[in-house]
Specification:
338 residues; alpha/beta; Aspartate Aminotransferase, domain 1; 7-stranded mixed β-sheet; binds pyridoxal-5'-phosphate
Length: 338
């Protein structure tokens, strides 16, 4: 296996438009709640999840036993693979997509098959994916919308995948749901092979906490929990999530900011003559050609972090949309570099 080394060093204090995190931080109410709740007994005892499970299940509109709390989406992916995929069995993923699908599949000894996003617009390759699914496919993992392309797919297509891949676990990773509003969660009752994940790492601004949720039908969740460490989610993350979901106004305001920033970035890139791809998430992928890496490096020197993706899509750079002011700073620096 190739090791996965995210470039995470030395980011504090810079304008972080490189990891699609929340660029202003979590709700202040989360910090207040944690301050109230942290004390010696809370840290001494092993985590108890009942209150968090209650609150989160209600928030997401599912039954408690249709949901597993996970240590980020990453653990959701790992538990899903460990539960449903044996050595040598086939996992279908898209290319390019979130690196952890391949990582955990390879770790489990699976045979990974990749379907390429369509060129030139990087749209979702529905027909190609449907064609690739066989009775031997054990898992299909899709980010909707996708990272790093930003492109998404509709529910009608997801239904066709679920119907065709009826002997596979189909994961719809909705890490960027709040920026697009498309969700497969209401399909849970209809499809016993559907798994949906959500995270607190993006819009909620809690990437350091490592908390995700994995949803599926009750019988599946019982299997998933067997393959999961009983305490993989720490107490503080479970507490923070309860406060985060209560502050809906904070999330709504941030989403509105991101959508305005995303439009501003798209318009700015147009003005600069740089091709970009239609995004339904909190980032924009654009083409800088030969200049992708020099642009990334020069932006970093000026205190603005973006992510080079040219190793997987020729000449492409990904920039996170935060607030309109942050978008303006990015565009100003980019224009001056160009
Ligand atoms: C598609 C996708 N899923 C999940 C995540 C985040 O995972 P986690 O919840 O483990 O922080 C990311 C972050 O980059 C992502 O792009």
């Amino acid at each position: 296996m190739a090791p996965y080394h995210p470039p995470t060093g030395g980011r504090a204090g810079k304008l972080r438009l490189d990891f699609n995190e929340n660029t202003v931080g979590c709700s202040p109410k989360v910090i207040e709640f944690l301050k109230q709740q942290i004390n010696a007994p809370a840290l001494t005892i092993y985590p108890e999840y009942e209150a968090a499970r209650n609150d989160l299940a209600q928030f997401f509109g599912v039954a408690e036993n249709e949901m597993a709390l996970t240590n980020g989406t990453d653990e959701a992916i790992q538990v899903l693979v460990n539960t449903y995929v044996d050595d040598g069995q086939e996992v279908l993923i898209l290319k390019p997509s979130y690196a952890m699908y391949r990582f955990y599949s390879e770790l489990a000894g699976a045979e990974v098959k990749e379907i390429a996003y369509r060129r030139p617009d990087l749209s979702f390759p529905l027909d190609e994916l449907l064609e690739a699914i066989t009775p031997g496919t054990r898992a299909v993992m899709i980010a909707n919308p996708n990272n790093p392309t930003g492109t998404g797919t509709g529910i009608a297509g997801i239904r066709r995948i679920l119907e065709r891949a009826d002997s596979a676990a189909v994961l719809i990773d909705e890490a960027y749901f709040e920026f697009c509003g498309v969700t497969a969660l209401p399909l849970l009752g209809e499809y016993p092979n559907l798994f949906v994940s959500r995270t607190f790492s993006k819009v909620y601004g809690m990437a350091a906490m490592r908390l995700g949720c994995l949803f599926s039908q009750t019988a599946n969740v019982a299997h998933l929990r067997k393959a999961q460490s009983p305490y993989s989610v720490n107490t503080l993350a479970a507490l923070a999530a309860r406060a985060a979901i209560r502050d809906t106004a904070y999330v709504e305001r941030y989403v509105a900011d991101v959508l305005a920033a995303r439009d501003a970035i798209a318009a700015g890139l147009d003005r600069l003559g740089l091709k970009h791809f239609p995004s339904q998430a909190n980032f924009v992928l654009f083409e800088a050609g030969e200049r992708a890496i020099p642009i990334r490096d020069e932006l970093r020197r000026r205190g603005v972090l973006v992510r080079d993706r040219s190793y997987e899509i020729d000449g492409c750079v990904r920039v996170t949309a935060g607030t309109p002011e942050q978008a303006e700073r990015f565009l100003k620096e980019l224009e001056s570099i160009l």
